[in-house]
Design goal:
Blueprint (H helix, E strand, L loop, with lengths): L8 H10 L4 H8 L3 H8 L7 H11 L3 H20 L11 H10 L1 H23 L3 H4 L8 H11 L5 H14 L6 H13 L2 E5 L9 E4 L4 E5 L4 H16 L1 H11 L4 H20 L2 H10 L4 H8 L3 H8 L13 E6 L4 E6 L16 H4 L8 E6 L5 E12 L7 E11 L21 E2 L24 E2 L11 E2 L1
Parallel strand pairs: 1-3, 6-9
Antiparallel strand pairs: 2-3, 4-5, 4-8, 6-7, 7-8, 10-11
Helix pairs in contact: 2-3, 5-7, 9-14, 10-14, 11-12, 12-14, 13-14, 16-17
Length: 472
């Protein structure tokens, strides 16, 4: 695979402005001429190795993050937004799109915000037929969508919270065995909160309940032990990391009180996972065990889902783990959790490609399903999926079934136990998956549900095909 040239004009320009430096002073720090810097900032030339080293030496940046993580996500989201039918006949060319990405990233973000609002409005109109009559069309993004995008563009990693959680784990001696008792002790000794584990006193869908006046935390024991432990550390994070969580939420600028509240809960979840699976130790053991989910869950006293999610957050500068995407899907195919530190991007709206092994997992409950997959951009992945079941106790307790999926670029196959004996060098071994039918450009697909929005179709009434059209 040819090495990609690194164009990072917008990032370079933003870094210079953050440092409050003129082009001449910034160029001097990098050891280059002002004219050369101007070419770099306008994406007329790629970053050279010498400039990259100068950036690291002078500004202590992480080049992998600086280079392409956000631009890849922006490009994927922009591609989906521009595929809307309403833009037919007005879509910019690839050259114009690339120019916008390179020179006006904030304009791209504004367009994506507009697209999100448009999608939210369409969804609201489908489910609430009287919304127009009452004049209650939402002018702000839905809270969940706003928080999801915030985590998406933050790489699902928050360094200050992660390091605080790691220090907390070290202080209490997290070892995967006494995680639960250590949390109970900390709540009592440091916060004066007693914990009671109750069965039947809380509704089945309620995991925990804090009573601030009596300083009592009730944990629903109808849920598995790893979930109970996670809930305890979640509450500790809300108590001990509240200032840092509030700072992150304030800087994010959420537009609704509900968005702020959801973000606070999600950040406390991040902190809880980082406490149970502290970064340095988890990274080292995950590498030693070659990212075996079941062995890692046993070692850290966590659930498979918690481990899979944690693997997708290992983005600390200077100590990054193997890049993974992580996804959770329900039986209807709806994606309920998603994140990617790989080049793979999920569709912002709709479900996952039906050719993905995450759907096949429901056919073999409790078993690891493996797959070699290739996305339309030519990237190849080692993919695994497995069902998980969440239920309360008792015959009438509701049962929730999901499939979780984890995947990594095939270049890391030797670091992943699930890649053993897969024929990674055989082109025919890869399933051709997509992101979403409406933006997938594959002309031949036996599972295509709808035509791609940005392509013409041909219908031949004399020929019967799996799908009743050909893509022009």
């Amino acid at each position: 695979m040819a090495e990609r040239k690194l164009f990072a004009g917008a990032r370079l320009r933003n870094l210079r402005k953050d440092e409050n430096l003129s082009q001449r002073d910034f160029a001097k720090r990098l050891g280059i001429s002002a004219s050369y810097l101007n070419q770099l900032e306008n994406n007329q030339r790629p970053l050279s190795a010498a400039v990259m080293l100068a950036l690291v030496d002078n500004f202590e940046i992480d080049l992998t993050s600086f280079a392409e993580d956000e631009s890849i996500r922006l490009a994927a989201d922009l591609n989906e937004a521009l595929a809307e039918p309403i833009l037919a006949g007005h879509r910019p060319s690839k050259q114009e799109t690339k120019a916008a990405m390179a020179h006006a990233p904030e304009f791209v973000r504004a367009l994506l915000a507009f697209h999100t609002g448009y999608q939210n409005l369409k969804n609201s109109l489908v489910s609430l037929n009287d919304i127009l009559e009452k004049g209650q069309i939402p002018a702000i993004p839905l809270p969940y969508e706003e928080v999801r995008d915030f985590f998406h563009y933050s790489d699902n990693y928050f360094d200050s919270l992660d390091k605080a959680a790691e220090a907390r784990a070290r202080e209490v001696g997290i070892d995967g065995i006494k995680n639960k008792s250590a949390a109970v002790d900390r709540l009592a000794e440091k916060h004066g909160i007693s914990v009671s584990f109750e069965r039947g006193k809380l509704p089945g869908e309620t995991l925990s309940e804090l009573h601030p006046d009596s300083k009592r935390l009730i944990i629903n024991t109808a849920h598995p032990e790893p979930s109970q432990t996670f809930l305890l550390w979640h509450q500790i994070a809300l108590l001990e990391d509240t200032d840092e969580i509030d700072r992150i939420v304030d800087e994010a600028g959420f537009q609704t009180p509900e968005g702020r509240s959801i973000a606070r809960m999600a950040l406390a979840n991040f902190s809880a996972g980082a406490t149970i699976m502290p970064y340095g130790e988890f990274l080292a053991i995950a590498s030693d065990l070659r990212h075996d989910l079941e062995l890692l869950a046993s070692k850290f006293g966590a659930s498979l889902e918690q481990v899979a999610h944690r693997l997708s957050t290992l983005q600390r500068t200077g100590a990054k783990g193997v890049p993974f995407y992580f996804m959770r899907v329900d039986r209807a195919g709806a994606i309920t959790k998603r994140h990617s530190t790989t080049r793979l991007q999920f569709a912002r709206y709709g479900g996952a490609c039906p050719l993905w092994n995450v759907h096949q997992a429901f056919e073999t409950p409790g078993e690891i399903v493996r797959q070699l997959a290739e996305t339309p951009d030519g990237e190849r992945y080692v993919c695994i999926a497995r069902t998980i079941t969440k239920r309360g106790q008792g015959f009438n307790a509701p049962i929730r079934r999901y499939a979780i999926a984890l995947g990594s670029p095939v270049e890391y196959v030797k670091d992943i136990v699930y890649g053993d004996d897969l024929k990674v060098n055989l082109l025919e071994a890869y399933d051709k998956i997509g992101i979403s039918c409406r933006i997938c450009n594959r002309t031949e697909c036996p599972q295509r549900a709808v035509p791609p929005i940005d392509r013409n179709i041909l219908v031949d009434t004399h020929t019967r095909r799996i799908v009743p059209f050909r893509i022009e």
